[in-house]
Design brief:
12 helices; disordered N terminus; single chain; mainly alpha; disordered C terminus
Length: about 325
């Protein structure tokens, strides 16, 4: 019997030196043209050749990103580097276009400040931004998110045990979720005062029902065969909950936590529009808009976006560690 030789596997692709050079050249070109946009002869009245350079760099960035995306990279350092490089290059391209359009056309800063002006404001307003971050995120968002999510989870367990609560609370949850935060916030300010307590109350209202609905749905996610097996072992409701239904509900619970991480930040900022001490992201945004200081408004938006992204990322990391067994996180190993 003759042995049939197995075909050799193709060598794993990697990011070529040409692609690296093209990426570096594109980024350097965008930096040079963005710097050129600040010169007196270009800012506010950019000539045709300047816009030709901008279009050429945009096409080059598009081509490099397309080439990186199409590379058949196996899992490894090259694939991870590509997964980081593509969104970074895309984001740099967007900020480059934002910068050169604002400067080249002389857009007034009261309408749209360029990214360089926002970065400059971030650099000179660190003390104010840190104080606003502490007031909004540390004193309002995090406590409200924890309290609202914990209450929603606890009531979901109670509703799972008492059927009439589930039938009564879920329609109420859909109704409350449809209420606009701009209508809830002034009521909570009147009830709980102008300090952080009213902001926490708004966040609790906004985060309670998403956690309730997701947890109730997750508790129903366990399969019928697994439930029948637990009944055959004469397992109690509590044992079945701890060993089967709660583990199966974890993806739904983390989904509620991630949804609440964004709702909490939005709710706290909007609530500060209706009354707060003279500190906070929402207070600063509403005040600086009235003063036409749009660079400070965008600086606050950047801080809020970064904080919200990191908050969401931490929850996603915890989800990956707790639900690594879930199909969405399984990784197939090459044979």
């Amino acid at each position: 019997m003759s042995a049939v030789a197995a075909p050799l596997a193709p060598p794993a692709a990697s990011i070529t030196a040409r692609t690296l050079v093209a990426t570096a050249a594109t980024v350097a070109g965008m930096a040079a043209v963005a710097t050129l946009a600040h010169r007196p002869g270009v800012a506010g009245n950019a000539p045709v050749w300047f816009w030709a350079l901008v279009v050429a760099l945009w096409i080059a960035a598009w081509g490099v990103n397309d080439r990186l995306t199409r590379l058949p990279l196996a899992s490894g350092p090259s694939a991870r580097a590509r997964d980081v490089a593509v969104p970074v290059l895309f984001g740099l391209t967007c900020f480059f276009l934002w910068e050169v359009v604002c400067l080249g056309f002389g857009v007034p800063t009261v309408l749209m400040p360029p990214p360089s002006a926002i970065l400059a404001k971030l650099a000179v307003s660190q003390a104010t931004l840190v104080a606003d971050f502490r007031q909004t995120f540390v004193r309002s968002v995090v406590p409200g998110w924890l309290l609202g999510s914990a209450l929603g989870f606890a009531v979901a367990l109670l509703a799972d045990r008492v059927p009439f609560l589930r039938r009564g609370l879920l329609p109420l949850g859909n109704f409350v979720s449809a209420l606009p935060v701009i209508g809830i916030a002034p009521i909570m300010v009147m009830w709980f005062g102008f300090d952080w307590h009213s902001k926490v109350a708004v966040v609790v209202v906004m985060t309670f029902f998403p956690m309730l609905v997701n947890t109730v749905a997750g508790l129903e996610a366990a399969g019928r065969l697994e439930r029948d097996l637990m009944r055959s072992y004469a397992a109690s409701w509590g044992t079945t909950l701890l060993k089967l239904r709660l583990p199966a509900a974890l993806p739904f619970v983390f989904n509620g936590l991630k949804i609440n991480s964004t709702l909490a930040l939005i709710g706290a900022i909007v609530a500060e529009f209706f009354g707060t001490p003279i500190v906070g992201m929402g207070f600063r945004i509403s005040t600086e808009v009235g003063r036409m200081q749009l660079d400070m408004v965008w600086a606050e938006i950047v801080v809020a976006a970064v904080a919200g992204t990191l908050f969401y990322g931490l929850i996603a990391m915890a989800e990956r560690a707790a639900t690594f067994w879930h199909p969405s996180y399984r990784r197939r190993r090459a044979a």
